[in-house]
Amino acid sequence: MITGGLGFIGSNLAHQLAALGADVLLIDSLIPDYGGNRFNIAGIESRVTVNIADVRQANTMNYLVRDREVIFNLAGQVSHIDSMRDPHTDLEINCHSQLTMLEACRTHNPSAKLVYAGTRQIYGKPDRLPVDETHLVRPTDINGINKAAGEQYHIVYNNVFGVRACSLRLTNIYGPRQLIRHDRQGFIGWFIRTALEGGTIQVYGDGSQLRDFVYVDDAADAFLRAGATDAVNGGVFNVGGPAPVSHRDLVTLLLEEAGTGRVNFVPWPDEKRKIDIGSFYSDSSKFTAVTGWRNTVDLRDGLRRTLAYYRPNLARYLEPPS
Amino acid sequence: MITGGLGFIGSNLAHQLAALGADVLLIDSLIPDYGGNRFNIAGIESRVTVNIADVRQANTMNYLVRDREVIFNLAGQVSHIDSMRDPHTDLEINCHSQLTMLEACRTHNPSAKLVYAGTRQIYGKPDRLPVDETHLVRPTDINGINKAAGEQYHIVYNNVFGVRACSLRLTNIYGPRQLIRHDRQGFIGWFIRTALEGGTIQVYGDGSQLRDFVYVDDAADAFLRAGATDAVNGGVFNVGGPAPVSHRDLVTLLLEEAGTGRVNFVPWPDEKRKIDIGSFYSDSSKFTAVTGWRNTVDLRDGLRRTLAYYRPNLARYLEPPS
Question: Which domains are delineated in chain A?
Answer without folding.
Answer: 2-317 (3.40.50.720)
